[in-house]
Write a structure and sequence with these properties.
This protein is of the alpha+beta class and 591 residues long. It contains 24 helices and seven strands. The strands form two sheets. A five-stranded mixed β-sheet has the order 2-3-1-6-7, with helices on both faces. A two-stranded antiparallel sheet has the order 4-5. Helix 2 runs antiparallel to helix 3 (44-55) and helix 10 (179-192) packs parallel to helix 12 (215-231). Its EC number is 2.7.7.65. Residues 1-20 form the signal peptide. It comes from Luteibacter sahnii. Keywords: Membrane, Signal, Transmembrane, Transmembrane helix.
Length: 591
């Protein structure tokens, strides 16, 4: 099931989980919060009124955590992840009530998955799995199992995903049916290639989807069945199934699932040779899809459009759609790879941590045995000590081997460890790709280099911790002003680079000015609100420098120096006079 869809459904599943998890709370506050927990996701106006009423009350620590959870839940539901995440994290990490912590953790998993922060999502999943055996609330466990199944399936861990789905089907809480568990099971088996036939179980499960929040699960199972028919060379059955449910799906007004339906219809019509309907469904899939999402429906739509135009001998249109298909296919596959890599990194970290704990326990046992052996005869004692030392050496070797394996995975990471943006090597790689594409498509691009003014003084005066926070705050401010297609990286120290595709010098200067004003207007760190930093900017354009990254870096770097000499906190455009005769070496970029 698409992750945004599962985010919405999983959060809706929580709406009936209001319960008294502590005693002694103020009756009025408890009643308001209980009512709000029940109506969230169904009655927005009433929910907002109840939350305002609760905020005006004097709340116990438990009720305050409960309120923060619902505020974070609501922000996540609305797509305001930056607001919802800290609220949910405060509850997941600090609430006294374990059920409340469990619910917040489950919602966080959805939030992080939708935001493509897979490594953090899998770390939260590991914590959810640790908590699950101690959770006696059946509805909370049911929702947690759903989260575990869908996230593991997205990481390619289909056996574990199926196991959680089967648990949901074996023991659904009161009011629930086979519907949700069967949907997770069907999707995991289909994506794993283990769906050889459509068992009657799935039709029975669809018939049991009678709750208001079950409709999306039923339609998702229809989509999986249609995909099964298409894969088995039965496109006519897929068309019949999808068209019969398309109107009911439209009433749900859920864009991602509608896009998946239309994408499947486009593939089925293409297989039947109905080019007109294939084109119409493919265009509909693109029209209703969520921009920026890495979905198979988007990839399928461009592929169908490309093949339709190719069959109609419209070579120009076919070429254009083929380029879009390749870009969508790459984005989709890159996202799958990112999920798999993040899972393996987290899995390796957890294994290493477990091994370290076991090693410490074994070392303690070794010390105990060594003390006991001191009373034995000298020769026997020496032999035992030798055996124990060999065991200890083996344990240390295993720990070191796992640590080296962990480091190998960590080296695969392409993000700057402090700021989370592209590191130097990844920026150069990504910028090179963007410029190569710009050169092929004759679309200009601009490079912005900037660094923080007097940053050394901040480190010397306030310490490196404040300096690090200043860098992170500056990156956060800039990140909010940049577009999804912009390439943002840290070259080293306090120096950063932004590559703006499809951009002219005037636009680049305006964008740089926006970044400069944003940095200057933001406190460097919440702990020192009077501390403000500024930045100097240098801008280079492919119109003057061509599409070679090293030439853009030379010109932008020279412009940055001129901005420094002009008094800092300003933007300067580079020109061709800044390009030296000798080639620019990437290693000479200022750190």
């Amino acid at each position: 099931m698409p992750r945004r869809l599962l985010c919405a459904i999983a959060m809706t599943m929580f709406c009936v989980m209001a319960r008294a998890t502590t005693s002694g709370d103020d009756d009025g506050a408890y009643a308001v919060l209980s009512e709000a927990d029940v109506v969230k996701g169904f009655d927005d106006v009433r929910f907002e009124r109840l939350i305002r009423d609760a905020q005006a009350m004097s709340l116990s620590p438990h009720d305050r955590a409960w309120l923060d959870f619902m505020r974070g839940w609501r922000a996540t539901w609305e797509g305001n992840y930056e607001t919802g995440r800290p609220l949910l994290e405060s509850v997941a990490d600090g609430a006294a009530d374990p059920v409340l912590r469990f619910r917040a953790t489950a919602t966080l998993i959805n939030l992080l998955g939708v935001g493509h922060r897979y490594e953090q999502a899998y770390l939260r999943l590991a914590r959810l799995q640790e908590m699950m055996p101690s959770i006696r609330d059946r509805r909370a466990r049911f929702a947690g199992q759903a989260e575990a199944s869908q996230l593991l399936s997205s990481a390619g861990q289909f056996d574990q995903a199926e196991s959680y789905a089967l648990d949901m089907m074996r023991d659904p809480p009161p009011g629930e049916t086979l519907c949700k568990g069967a949907q997770h099971l069907l999707r995991a088996r289909r994506e794993n290639g283990h769906l050889d036939a459509l068992e009657s179980l799935y039709q029975t499960s669809i018939a049991s989807c009678t709750r208001p929040d079950d409709a999306v699960f039923a339609q998702t199972m229809h989509a999986d069945m249609a995909a099964f028919y298409i894969a088995r060379g039965r496109p006519a059955e897929a068309v019949t199934l999808l068209t019969a449910n398309l109107q009911a799906l439209s009433a749900l007004k859920y864009a991602i699932l509608t896009s998946e339906f239309e994408g499947l219809l486009a593939r089925a019509y293409l297989n039947l040779g109905d080019l007109a309907h294939a084109r119409r469904s493919a265009l509909a899939a693109l029209a209703v899809g969520v921009p920026g999402e890495f979905t198979d429906a988007r990839r399928a739509a461009f592929e169908v459009l490309y093949k339709v135009e190719q069959r109609l001998n419209h070579s120009d249109a076919a070429l254009a759609y083929h380029e879009q298909f390749m870009a969508a296919d790459k984005a989709y596959l890159d996202d799958i790879s990112a999920r798999s890599l993040a899972f393996q990194v987290v899995d390796q970290q957890l294994r290493a941590r477990k091994t370290e704990v076991e090693a410490l326990n074994r070392q303690n046992e070794i010390l105990r045995l060594t003390g006991a052996l001191a009373n034995k005869e000298v020769e026997t004692g020496r032999l035992y000590i030798f055996v124990l030392l060999v065991c200890l050496a083996l344990i240390v070797w295993i720990v070191l081997w796992l640590r080296r394996s962990q480091l190998r995975f960590m080296k695969l990471a392409r993000r700057d460890g402090l700021t989370g943006i592209c590191n130097r090597e990844h920026f150069v790689e990504q910028a090179g790709r963007v410029l190569a594409y710009g050169a092929r498509s004759d679309r200009g691009a601009c490079l912005i280099l900037f660094d923080l003014d007097h940053f050394k003084a901040v480190n010397d005066t306030y310490g490196h911790a404040v300096g690090d926070e200043t860098l992170k705050r500056a990156v956060d401010v800039c990140g909010r002003a940049l577009h999804a297609c912009d390439v943002f990286g840290r070259l080293g120290g306090e120096e950063f680079a932004v590559l703006l595709p499809d951009c002219n010098p005037a636009q680049a200067r305006a964008r740089a000015e926006q970044l400069r004003l944003s940095i200057a207007a933001t406190a460097a760190t919440p702990s020192i609100p009077h501390l403000h930093v500024t930045a100097s900017f240098g801008v280079a354009s492919t119109l003057q420098c061509g599409f070679e990254l090293h030439r853009l870096l030379v010109v932008a770097d020279a412009a940055l120096y001129r901005a420094k000499r002009a008094g800092r906190n300003c933007v300067t455009l580079g020109d061709t006079a800044d390009i030296p005769d000798s080639p620019y070496l990437m290693g000479e970029i200022r750190g």
